[in-house]
Design goal:
There is one protein chain. It contains three helices and 20 strands. The chain is mainly beta. The chain has two domains: 160 residues, no CATH class; 104 residues, no CATH class. The strands form six sheets. Strands 1, 2, 3, 4, 8 and 9 form a six-stranded antiparallel beta sheet that branches. β5 and β6 form a beta hairpin. The longest helix has 13 residues.
Length: 282
């Protein structure tokens, strides 16, 4: 079953990495069953299964760092985490009466409130005495070129590890925005050709790099400036956000059209022009 992060989760992840905003992911989360699905992005609407017949309103508790796989695994153009399975009754329900048909499942930060971490459609129609189980390997979270456009594989691994309760790298205190005449691979950061010479240097931007995220998206919070070119830089086709080395690439953005940079020209990335977003839906 494919599930997707809610806007609540996406916003926290983007703010954690690009603004340095701390987010303590709960070690215990709760799976809720639905007979009418909420909006998985906003957590609005939906009808949770009525409690009292083998189901407790608010969901079934799971320990996050033992529920998910030990680390994100390469999958297609990105990475995936998969649940490792159930322990005891942590993800198992036994109906003590006929239940309404189950249409979806959501993982919440608490057994009350609307802090939805992720969710997706799921079909079950249990009768009295039937067991409903989230089985080992049943739930996948994929982040790749189709749903994390512009975010590199390095960064999506950090995001997946964060949500699954595993150790992560520390978000940077400075971000280096580099210009390229050949745009790097959006997922790996490889094969790009960075501008050299002519007084060019990567722009060093202190945290916070981005505005507060909303609806799973954000952008650079201020204009990014570069020194005036003292020689021809060539045609600048895109930019990347990296660490100082650069060893780790965080995001890559190909410009809509190339910018020819000649001796004496100035270059900047306007406030709000570097988009950072998720696009996944379920």
């Amino acid at each position: 079953m494919a599930v997707a992060f809610s806007d609540y989760t996406k916003n926290h992840l983007l703010d954690w990495w690009f603004r340095g905003t701390a987010w303590s992911v709960p070690s215990t989360m709760y799976w809720r069953l639905f007979t009418a699905n909420p909006n998985w992005a906003t957590a609005s609407g939906g009808t949770e299964l009525t409690g009292g017949t083998g189901y407790t309103t608010g969901g079934q508790a799971v320990t996050i760092n033992t529920f998910w796989a030990t680390a994100p695994a390469s999958q297609g153009t990105g990475y995936r985490i998969t649940n490792t399975g159930t322990t005891g009754a942590s993800c198992t329900w036994t109906a003590s009466a006929d239940w309404s048909a189950i249409t979806g499942v959501g993982l919440y930060a608490a057994n009350t409130g609307t802090d939805l971490i992720l969710g997706g459609s799921w079909s079950a129609d249990p009768g009295n005495g039937d067991t409903v189980r989230i089985s080992s390997g049943a739930i996948d979270i994929d982040l790749d070129a189709s749903n994390a456009s512009g975010l590199t594989n390095y960064l999506v691994q950090q995001f997946l590890r964060k949500v699954s309760g595993l150790s992560t790298d520390t978000p940077p205190s400075n971000y280096y925005v580099r210009l390229y005449t050949t745009v790097p691979n959006v997922k790996t950061g490889a094969t790009g050709t960075e501008v050299t010479g002519g007084s060019y240097a990567a722009a060093n931007v202190a945290s916070p790099f981005a505005d507060a995220a909303s609806a799973g998206a954000t952008q650079n919070a201020a204009q990014v400036d570069y020194a005036t070119a003292t020689a021809n830089w060539g045609t600048v086709l895109g930019a990347a956000i990296t660490d100082a080395t650069p060893t780790n690439f965080y995001a890559v953005d190909a410009f809509p059209s190339g910018v020819v940079m000649d001796n004496g020209d100035d270059f900047y990335i306007a406030d709000g022009a570097f988009d950072l977003s998720f696009t996944d839906t379920v």
